[in-house]
Write a structure and sequence with these properties.
The structure holds two protein chains of two kinds.
Chain A lengths: L1 H10 L1 H18 L1 H4 L31 H37 L1 H16 L2 H11 L4 H10 L3 H14 L3 H8 L4 H12 L1 H24 L11 H8 L7 H29 L7
Helix pairs in contact in A: 1-13, 2-4, 2-13, 4-5, 4-7, 4-8, 4-11, 5-8, 8-11, 9-10, 11-12, 11-13, 12-13
Chain B lengths: L1 H27 L6 H5 L7 H11 L5 H13 L13 H36 L4 H15 L2 H15 L16 H35 L2 H8 L4 H38 L5 H10 L3 H29 L7
Helix pairs in contact in B: 1-12, 5-6, 5-8, 5-10, 5-12, 6-8, 7-8, 7-10, 8-10, 9-10, 10-11, 10-12, 11-12
Classes of the chains: A mainly alpha, B mainly alpha.
């Protein structure tokens, strides 16, 4: 089964390349303190606003800080927020969806009405309010984005659980005296892992986009800590004279989100051959 | 259908109540309160002045009391007074609404037409270069941050090429329609981009499966022209799921408008929201969020209703 899955996944060349790309970029950003040629807040007033060159691969900004260095450090924050927020959202969605689907009745009704409410509030404006009024640190960004992106996972997991809980092996486990929690954690959720994983993957891309949008409005992680989003915000005023400051962070977001989406897409096809588009 | 719609409309009442409670509480939980805007001017403000300000705004009351007062007024169509301008929130939103509707409407139209054309072109020749190109652009369109696309278009088409104005709704001193439309082009393209990407892929998939269906084979066997088979049989059926996806996407336009309006200095609801947020103008925030939520709910309902109307096999009891 696992081997079959990898064979199907490997058939999608774009996805394999994306996975490699994501791992390389992720590793480079994680190792930023080692790899970066300059300190991320190293102000060098002798070399401000330089276009890309051999010593500054992506140029320098208004304070003479090396853009390549800041891209590495910024990626660390952006990718970390993306990954962690997806974990928070997926965990919450799985817990809520599993509880609703497994117990049914009043619990199901209440949890699904809460999901309806959360679904109907326009996400970005609410995120804007929450991040504007909380201290814009990494932890709060992760929590805020995660707390507002569990709804789709909850619905998917609930419908999965509804069908899985009728399976014979669940009945057998119950017959042998397993507790509800054990049945859920050991028997039901592992069998719904496919769609959960797909949702989580797409959630990473989504969270990176949201972080960048919030940073662009000046509400994300605050300078001097660089993120791809706040680097873009800083660049807006000088876009015309120093386009490289706008180009690189945007390209980074685009390629990372693109890679994550390719991976999620291939995962979906590999896990569910009937939904394959080819 | 009638009873179904009535029941769904009835369900909206508790849903809206739930949403307004959640949003109201979240806004009120903000540390600092509305007087933070007063204090942030940096001048010394007498504590008694702050207290009088809080009493005047009614924020000295417990949050549940404030909510009940707000909700009672909201039921009569009164969303309260703005803290910053002391004008009715309803009027402020009303003033900004046309600009937002104009932007959303043109983006929606543009996205629908493009998605239709691209969908047909790629479904007729799957895996051709045009399909691959469309597929690639769709992936890029979905992964591209909206504001970054806006900045790039400003840089290339407004600054470098000078084909379109950078931002705003009209050039100072002119009020011609052509000038206004020129200002609309870039923001509409930016707002439409994601929807073109997702709707065209959606339409492609649904058209490909329609083209492989029995009724299309029958239509072909009857000797109908390929054009007729395509447009009166395949496309009509393939549009059913797409129309409902479009109604759902429309609900999401609210979020996109906030960013697009900010990038292009478009004086709509989205900009009003961002301004109100920095000024801690709670009644305005509350009004806009409530309106946005109502839009989402109404379009969700519309999606289901349209789905039922277009596909008679779907029955609502």
């Amino acid at each position: 089964m696992r081997e079959l899955f990898w064979r199907r996944f490997a058939r999608r060349r774009a996805a394999v390349l994306s996975l490699a790309f994501f791992v390389v970029i992720g590793a480079a950003c994680a190792l930023a303190p080692v790899l970066a040629p300059f300190p991320f807040d190293g102000i060098d007033l002798d070399s401000v606003k330089q276009p890309p060159s051999l010593s500054h691969w992506m140029g320098t900004d208004d304070l003479g800080r090396d853009v390549f260095t800041r891209m590495l450090f910024g990626g660390r924050v952006s990718i970390l927020i993306g990954l962690l927020a997806a974990v928070v959202g997926t965990f919450l969605g799985t817990a809520i969806g599993a509880a609703a689907g497994y117990h049914g009745g009043v619990i199901d009704n209440v949890l699904m009405r809460i999901t309806d409410v959360a679904y109907a509030i326009p996400t970005l404006p609410l995120l804007i309010i929450l991040s504007a009024y909380s201290r814009a640190a990494l932890v709060s960004m992760v929590l805020i984005i995660g707390l507002l992106s569990w709804m789709t996972t909850a619905r998917v997991v609930r419908s999965q659980v509804l069908s899985i809980k009728e399976m014979d092996y669940v009945e057998a486990a119950r017959g042998m005296g397993a507790t509800d929690l054990r049945i859920l954690v050991r028997h039901i959720v592992p069998n719904a892992l496919g769609p959960i994983l797909v949702g989580a993957t797409l959630g990473v891309g989504n969270a990176i986009m949201i972080e960048s949008s919030l940073s662009f409005l000046g509400l994300g992680v605050q300078p001097p800590t660089p993120t791809w989003g706040n680097m873009l915000m800083d660049s807006q005023a000088t876009m015309v004279t120093k386009p490289w400051l706008t180009l690189f962070p945007g390209l980074a977001i685009l390629f990372v989100v693109l890679a994550v989406n390719f991976i999620g897409d291939a995962l979906r096809d590999a896990l569910d051959p009937s939904a394959s588009s080819r | 259908m009638g009873p179904y719609i009535a029941r769904r409309l009835l369900q909206m009442v508790p849903l809206l109540a739930g949403i307004s409670i959640v949003v109201f509480t979240l806004i009120q939980m903000a540390p600092g309160g509305p007087e933070a805007a007063l204090l942030s001017t940096g001048r010394f403000v007498d504590p008694s002045v702050v207290e009088a300000y809080r009493v005047k705004l009614g924020v000295d009351q417990p949050v549940p009391m404030q909510y009940l007062r707000w909700a009672a007024a909201a039921l009569t169509g009164d969303l309260g007074l703005s803290y910053s301008t002391t004008r009715p929130v309803v009027h402020m939103i009303g003033e900004r609404l046309p600009a937002t509707l104009e932007l959303m409407g043109s983006a929606f139209l543009l996205a629908a037409v493009l998605a239709f054309l691209i969908g047909i072109a790629s479904a007729l020749r799957p895996h051709s270069w045009i399909d691959l190109l469309a597929n690639g652009s769709a992936f890029v369109g979905i992964a591209m941050p909206v504001f970054w696309l806006g900045l790039l278009l400003q840089l290339v088409f407004a600054v470098e090429l000078g084909w379109a104005p950078v931002s705003g709704t009209h050039t100072v001193g002119t009020s011609s329609l052509g000038d206004h439309l020129a200002h609309l082009v870039l923001p509409a393209i930016v707002l439409a981009s994601r929807y073109v990407a997702s709707w065209s892929r959606y339409f492609r998939a649904s058209l490909i499966s329609a083209l492989q269906s029995d009724y299309v084979r029958t239509a072909r066997a009857q000797g109908l022209s390929e054009r007729r088979v395509l447009f009166t049989h395949a496309v009509r059926n393939a549009l059913v799921p797409v129309v409902s996806a479009m109604a759902l996407g429309l609900a999401d336009l609210v979020s996109g408008a906030v960013i697009t309006e900010t990038v292009f200095a478009w004086p709509g609801i989205g900009r009003l929201f961002v301004q109100a947020m920095f000024g801690r103008d709670y009644p305005v925030l509350m009004g806009i969020l409530l309106m946005g939520s109502l839009t989402v709910i109404v379009f969700n309902l519309a999606a289901d209703v349209v789905y039922g109307l277009l596909d008679p096999r779907i029955r609502y009891e």
